[in-house]
Amino acid sequence: MTIFLTMLIGATSFSDSFELGTQAYENNQYSQAVEEYESLVYNRIYEPEVFYNLANTYYQQGDYALAMVNYERAYFLNPRLKIVQENIEQTRMQTKQQLARPTSAGIESEFYFWHHMISAKTSLSIAIFSWLLLWFGLILLKKSPRKGLKALVGVSGFVAFIFFGSWYLKTNPMELAVAQGDDIPVRIGTKETDTIRFELYSGDRVHIDAHMGEQVRITTATGNRGWVDQKYLVTVWPPERTTGM
Amino acid sequence: MIYRYIALCLCILTWSGWSAAQNTPRIEASVESTEVHVFKPFLLNLYYQGPGPVEYQFPPNVGFKINPNPRGRSERTSIINGVRSLQAEYALVVEVTKAGEVTIPPIKAIVAGQTFSTEPITLTVKNDDPAFKYPIHVRVRNMTVKKGEWFWVYIDSPWLDKPLPNQLPVISGLENAPGLPPNDGQSSYVPSRSRTQTRGYRVRATQSGTITIPSMTFQLHQQSVNSNPLELKVLDRPSTTTEDIKGNSGLPFVRMDVDTRDIYLGEPVLMTLQLWVPKQSPFDLSARNRSTTSTPSTEGFYASDVQNDVFEAHLGTQAYHVNEQRKLLYPTKTGEHTIDAYRYEGDIVNRGRRREYLVEYGPYNVNVKPLPSAPNTYTGAIGQFNVDVDLSSTKLKEGVPIELSLVVSGQGNADAIASPKFPELSWAHVAEVKREQKEIKLFGQVIPAIEKTFRYTITPTRAGSHVIPAIQYATFDPHQGNYIEDTFGPFNLTVSAGDEDSVSMVVEDSSANISQSTPLIGTSIHPLMTMSDSLRRAQSRKLWLYLVLILPIVLYAIAVRYLNRQDRFVNDTSFARAQGAYEKGKNRLKAIHSSSEPGEELYRTMIDYLGDIFNINEQGLTSKDVEDLLEAKQIDPENATTIIRLLKSCERSRYAAQKLTDDELGALVQAAQNVMRTLESRGKQNRGVK
Fold first, then answer.
1. What pLDDT sits at residue A3?
2. Contacts across the A-B interface (CB distance below 8 Å)
3. Given Cys at both, which of B68, B117, B410, B513 links B507, Cβ 3.0 to 4.6 Å?
């Protein structure tokens, strides 16, 4: 009972914060709106609506880097929200280099090209359903072997395997980060004295593919690659690793 | 109600008619300029909009040649008001083969049995472009050669009706490389818009003075075309070479060759190394497995292997195995560089006497010249290249990206080819999205042709008439010793405003995504979202996920065990009897005290129990039978003795007048329980039951 009441009170207080944030946004009080939405994120309220509204608020403040980060988080949670995709595009148009999101590589681009519009939750639901069906089918098969049941077991096993894979890839995505700040040097090596290969600008999205101390190796959508100090980057997921909060 | 259906049907009919009108097929053909040159390829843009599928019919090639495989294409299928519509643009390569006025007749599109045509295009064809005076171009790298020294004669040509010959025709003063297989020549196909090929012929001058390679005639598009004549200056050189001497001696020897000794920085030198080993020799060469060849040191160059080959060849009457290596050497600095001698060391045995044998060829000096002063548009490409720019569409829509690609193809140093300086566009966003580089190596080819493509997406941000300024790209041709500057455009474009319903989102990740249609980019962001559900903390799903994963496996294991047990009960009598024996026996022992004949009942209980656990017929069993049975079943002696004693006590009470006292009966029941418990645990172990 106590737990239920605590949850209920907590839910009410979070909903209030969300409403307060929305009201502040509509009254053009963006700083207050940021506080309200950020408090929700701090309390691990990971809903696409929260990240989306937070991103909108940052956008209105002209902070396109944090807007991009939070739009990407909303997109991560629900890739089917078109308004999120469109706002990401609008934010991209505000950045200096207008770089695209780096494409996923390897198994995801080869075999899971179809799953980008399915959320992790959907993949997991289908996987679990198929998994239960698989074992239920196996039990029935044990009791009375039938041809149809064998097919059911085979199909459900295959579907479970595919969707568990999809869910795994979605919950362990490539490490996406957004540049925060302009003229960020990206070097050919990890040393400060290494030659600068190119520069990043606020809102540029990059894929992190290696870590070495404080340095991370990044790749942009155009294929440019180099090492950069991770203090200049805000990681998209998970949100608690964000330096901007 | 019926009126609603009628109204609905009318709406559908009206809408279908309007949709069909919107989807009337349209086909257009256009060229950038109607003034073209003989044999100089140009692009014909073919635009089609309407329902699919569509089949194109090209007119017969008379005075021109259309390559039906498009160089660039953009196809987009969209559904407008429920009707599927194809919008396609193709960039086709056309070559005109005669001067004067040439008309390209209509190109036809056949859609669902109906034919739609483009307007004919009339071209004014000139033949005053010096680069195309001789469509077949014969060249050498150095116009001055030494007598007796091997060098390469190259023929560059468009894709001819017949392939280039494997050897040059007989030319006075020139000798084709002896004994070399037909594929020893160089040939390459550069898949650029102009479809050129290059083949190299290895020859040497046999006389000093001036040698003329005369104009040769080839067939191109059923017409005779000539190559340029070429005059070479041949200097005197000692006529006896190392290879000639060794060639007659029956000994292994080496050959080494560089195709030029005077190059520009960045221009490669083709170094050929050959080890000739006689197939038959008066000497014993069996010790030659101890032989070594030392690759020449090439300081001042970085080398890349292009081809290794093994073949047989003849020199005079002597047959040889030839092991050939080729390397491309790229100079890293200017000045005089030395490529060391190619050396062979080994042992030969002559009349039982082993002696060391050493032979070498070279060294060569190569002079590396700096590049002359470069134009602003030069970004580093050195070699013989074709440069082309391709725009995927000239009909633009606000927010919809198109692709512009610049293709540099030919032979040269791929690493040195850098992207062009792209002009700033105030009305669009330009992003270089991809670079591609590939090598094309065909049979018989020595140096692979390369093709490097720079792709840009141009996303118009403002509607109206706009211009992509001319794109200039310079390459340095080391054979000509100067820069070749190509200019493409300017491109006049019309950008239509994006409509709210169907403006495409910029999907900028790859060119393939350009034609994907996804919803709009507005001018501002979308408003906030509201929450319909209450907000909850993100929960870790790990625990319940593990449960969900493991639970069905556990349930399956339980179900399998249960079903197996059920099966055994049905099919295995001994198992079924043994399973219930203990409980049955225990219950009967509890009821012993209330029995009128406890001794008899105890005896029967024990006999029944033993019958059940050992799956035997218990009728008529005596204590002696039981003793034998227990011994046969290897029951431990202590328990066996207890059971026998217990049965004998029961037998005595049955046949004696004296009944068992309560104490005696209690002790016997207790002993029987203990024995049953022991036998039950042993039986469980034997049955595999826990």
1. 46
2. 120
3. B513
